[in-house]
Amino acid sequence: MTAPLRPNNLEAFWMPFTANRQFKQAPRLLVGAKGMYYTDADGREILDGTAGLWCVNAGHAREKIVEAVSSQVAELDYAPAFQMGHPKAFELASRLANMMPSPLDHVFFTNSGSESVDTALKIALAYHRARGKGTKFRLLGRERGYHGVGFGGISVGGISGNRKTFGTLLTGVDHIRHTHDLSRNAFSRGEPEYGAEFADDLEKVIALHDASNIAALIVEPVAGSTGVLIPPKGYLKRLREICDKHDILLIFDEVITGFGRCGTMMGADAFGVVPDLMTFAKQVTNGVQPLGGVVASKAIYDTFMAAGGPDYMLEFAHGYTYSAHPVACAAGIAALDLLEREDGPGRVKALSAHFEAAVHGLKGARHVLDIRNYGLAAGFTIAPVAGEPARRPYDIAMACWKKGFYVRYGGDTIQLAPPFISEKAELDRLVNALGDALAETV
Ligand SMILES: Cc1ncc(COP(=O)(O)O)c(C=O)c1O
Fold first, then answer.
1. Quick check: bond before 290 cis, omega within 30?
2. Tens digit of pLDDT for each residue in 373-421?
3. Whose C-alpha in 97, 153, 244, 315 is 20 to 30 A from the C-alpha of 28?
4. Per-residue pLDDT for 22 more than 70?
5. 253 and 230, same structural domain?
């Protein structure tokens, strides 16, 4: 390992979703990564228990992706995203279209999950307008949903801490209830038995606003960032039926569930429900380059084309300077090659029973109120310290960090989402370290 890198001054960087004051007193600096492991500034190996931020599913610094990015920078570093194209954008879009559940086959590129969500919401609104249904302007989300941090995403998102400061721009939105029912489903393995009827909440919200005013409902098939909340059996199917009945678009935010995490290519495949629009990001490039997107059906795309006026006019006034950035597309193509060649979804499926048994082995551990899992993702609800709801998960994650393990914490939860290349022994070490951290934490 080369000499550890330590910045002299930590002040200027205003860190995202970070307790800046706390971090800067005791920084956790990562200076390298390979495979399953980070190296920190002290030269310690840290097992990556959350695949970065749910994105480095094939493990770090994979050679083929590194090569693809390096050669793309040298060949075509940037191409204007508007009114111009480059071959890799079309190649990646075709590739994605072939991987998606039918009839999703047209891809609009963005740079992140947040942008993908805002783009999907805009497509939904513009789609209804193009069909002469411009009164369908309301957007629905779900409690405890996380859809990034754009104004659209926090509006439909259901995490109060992310929304409450931002006032009146969040109008025209309503939420259905979340599905996490500890009274009936605590310690569920896979899809919980009870709670399909939570979907009927959608009928109530529709009765309140009227379907003629509602454009779309957005949900994560598995809510990731709020602690891995698994949909109850039959719940997503019921949402699909209700949306169909009322001409409301169903959007799946697959920023976490896409590309293998559920043991299938997309979360939609795992639950047998196809949305009208699907967002993706993160692992499409294995986290190496920022890239996201929205996938729509040909019918939705054609609606925009038909309403677009003369053929020199834009059909959808939306896009980003870096939409379909050539380097991100090169990373995406290489990452999808790897995902298919190594059968990422199959690997998740093969590991999931072992992972499930390991995480549920922590039932009865100190502070643990619930454990749930799906594919290669698990969430733990941690009993809060009175009056300090977010403190204990932080303490637990820091105890893991000291032992050389990186886990995510948020709200009253701990989350695990190891890379697909994990060996069973590594999963065991991760879960054992969490068990030790739980036992040590007051
Ligand atoms: C389901 C979901 N949607 C959207 C986002 C936002 O993605 P980004 O941070 O790339 O903007 C995330 C990020 O974790 C996510 O989990």
1. no
2. 999 999 999 999 999 988 999 999 999 999 999 999 999 999 999 999 9
3. 153
4. yes
5. yes
Residue 217 lies in a domain: yes
List the domain range (segments joined by +) for residue 382: 7-58+343-440
> What is the CB < 6 Å shell around ligand 1?
112-114, 117, 146-148, 220, 224-225, 253, 255-256, 281
What is the dihedral sign for C-alpha 279, 422, 382, 235?
A: positive
Cβ-based neighbour number of residue 361 at 10 Å = 14
Q: What is the pLDDT of residue 2?
A: 52
Q: Are 4 and 31 in contact (CB under 8 A)?
A: yes
What whole-number distance in Å separates Cα of residue 177 and Cα of residue 196?
A: 12
Pair 365, 320 in one domain: no
Q: Are 287 and 249 in contact (CB under 8 A)?
A: no
Q: Which CATH number covers residue 39?
A: 3.90.1150.10
Question: Pick from 287, 316, 341: which residue ends a domain?
Answer: 341
* Alpha helix segments (H runs only) across 100-156: 113-130, 151-156
Give which of 345, 347, 344, 332 is closest to 64, Cα–Cα. 332
Provide the CATH number for the domain around residue 105. 3.40.640.10
Closest CA to 198 of 139, 142, 124, 132: 142
CB atoms within 10 A of CB 131: 14
How close is the Cα of 17 to the center of ligand 1, in Å? 12
pLDDT at 407: 98
Is residue 379 within 8 A of residue 228, CB to CB? The reply is: yes
Nearest CA to ligand 1 atom 3: 147
Tell me, yes or no, whether 294 and 350 share the same domain.
Answer: no
Helix axes 326-341, 63-75, angle to 10 degrees: 160
16 and 159 both lie in a single domain: no
Q: Is residue 201 part of a domain?
A: yes
Of 288, 312, 341, the domain-final residue: 341
Number of domain units in the chain: 2
Residue nearest to atom 13 of ligand 1 (CA): 148
